[in-house]
Amino acid sequence: MASCSGNSSDSMQLQNSGSEENLRILMDQRKRKRKELNRESAKRSRMRKQKHIDDLMLKKSELMKENKQILKSTNMAIEQLLNVEAENSILRAQMVELSQRLESLNDIISYMNTNTGGFEIVDDIYDNSFINHPWNLIYVNQEPIMASADIFYY
Q: Measured between alpha carbons, how far is 143 from 67 in angstroms, rounded to an integer?
């Protein structure tokens, strides 16, 4: 029996060493499988990261293009604003000038009405004093005096 029990312990050791060997092989397989899964996961992670970077780069180029368009339209709007302001300045200068001319003409009419009681009809067209007097000259086709934008530049 002693020999049986000795054989039995030897077979147990063989079984233990066999099971330890199997356990080690199983553990190695699990490690290899886990390493492979980790590699695949890392690869997917790198691919997601690269896709995210590519998406961000695409978005950046789209935003830069949009920014250029906005800047271009803003510059055009500013240019139009400056043109309108220059034209407005010219029109205001013309308005002031025409207002002064109108006031002068109204003063002349008022002066003539108070001194003569109205306009006087001149019988003698060739009277030199009438022709030579600047207020009596009628300029039918006279163009208004135009202000120019150049007067506003210093």
A: 48
Residues 34-88 pLDDT 10s: 999 999 999 999 999 999 999 999 999 999 999 999 999 999 999 999 999 999 9
Non-local CB neighbours of 118 within 8 Å, separated by 6+ positions: 112
Euclidean distance between CA atoms 27 and 34, whole angstroms: 10
b/e sequence 30-51, b meaning 16+ C-beta within 10 Å: eeeeeeeeeeeeeeeeeeeeee
Dihedral-angle region of residue 117 (phi above 0 means left; psi in -120 to 50 means alpha; beta otherwise):
left
CA distances from 72 to 69, 82, 103, 149 (A): 5, 15, 46, 26
DSSP for 5-68, please give it. Answer: HHHHHHHHHHHHHHHHHHHHHHHHHHHHHHHHHHHHHHHHHHHHHHHHHHHHHHHHHHHHHHHH
* Gap between the Cα atoms of 112 and 121, Å rounded: 12
User: Please, what is the end-to-end C-alpha distance for the chain in angstroms?
Assistant: 127
Residue 36 and residue 113: Cα distance in Å, rounded? 113
The predicted-structure confidence for 137-152, as pLDDT tens digits, reads as follows: 555 455 555 556 565 5
